[in-house]
């Protein structure tokens, strides 16, 4: 049985990806931020995956911390016997205009969204190289492709993920490991619940499909990129935004 590790899987897009990959037959490693609230939510996600007939366990780690990521990858490998798919999904926003943003707001978003991808890919790729196969999907954003006012930190982190995805894909392609990214537009999750109606309607006007995205619409593309159906796709960033920018 193949194993998939999803970071930040206690809610939102990560939760949906975990359940979708369980449906596809992966054993699931549900990463959650080390807090009681996230642990309880992650346990419910793992339980939902088990109900689909696969193994599922929860793993606490703050993905901005290098050592915690290395320990988690080792624990997942020890628990399930392999690590075949990794989804670097965990992310945060600390939005405000560039001139108002504190250094702390900038650094926190870079650490959680961007450095985490290095923290996770390094140990995971080592495992995948030994296995001689593996697939990774990194969570970028349309903000990393086109920019977004109030998100200089977030846009920087997501643009970097696109560059990291291409670089890792080039480094490990010969080892039968594929690395891709997805760039969602506005998807209905707790992260976007906090946007004001004015912010939402400004984005809405630009969406060709005239609706916001559902978490399932991200999970299905991630599942495709991790599957053999995408066996000749690597280094790519797939935009999933209902036609936000063209
Ligand atoms: P969310 O806030 O609902 O979920 C984020 C998850 O990441 C949570 O489970 C949270 O606990 C976890 N997390 C945060 N910091 C962490 C840390 N240091 N260590 C481990 N876990 C941590 O957000 P979401 O909308 O589901 O977003 C998921 C991903 O998709 C993020 O990377 C986000 O940037 C990206 N994204 C979302 C949208 C959208 O419209 N919702 C659009 C583009 C990209």
Short note summarizing the structure:
The protein has 246 residues and is α/β, with parallel strands linked by helices. The chain has helices at 12-23, 36-50, 66-80, 103-131, 142-146, 152-172, 190-193, 197-206, 215-226, and strands at residues 3-6, 27-32, 56-60, 85-88, 134-139, 177-184, 237-240.
Describe the structure.
With 246 residues, this protein is of the alpha/beta class. The chain is built from nine helices and seven strands; from the N terminus they run βαβαβαβαβααβαααβ. The chain has helices at 12-23, 36-50, 66-80, 103-131, 142-146, 152-172, 190-193, 197-206, 215-226, and strands spanning 3-6, 27-32, 56-60, 85-88, 134-139, 177-184, 237-240. α1 packs parallel to α2 (36-50) and α3 (66-80) packs parallel to α4 (103-131). It is globular, with a radius of gyration of 17 Å. It starts with a strand and ends in a 6-residue tail after the last strand. Residues 7-8, 10-14, 33, 38, 62-64, 89-92, 112, 139, 141, 184, 186-187, 189-192 line the site of nicotinamide-adenine-dinucleotide (NAD).
- Helices, by number, come to 9
Average pLDDT, rounded to a whole number, is 97
What is the alpha-carbon Rg in Å?
Answer: 17 Å
Describe the biggest sheet?
7 strands, parallel
Features:
9 helices, 7 strands, 7-stranded parallel beta sheet, globular, 246 residues
Helix and strand layout, with pairings?
Layout (H helix, E strand, L loop, with lengths): L2 E4 L5 H12 L3 E6 L3 H15 L5 E5 L5 H15 L4 E4 L14 H29 L2 E6 L2 H5 L5 H21 L4 E8 L5 H4 L3 H10 L8 H12 L10 E4 L6
Parallel strand pairs: 1-2, 1-4, 2-3, 4-5, 5-6, 6-7
Helix pairs in contact: 1-2, 1-9, 3-4, 4-6
The site of nicotinamide-adenine-dinucleotide has 26 residues, from helix 1 and helix 7.
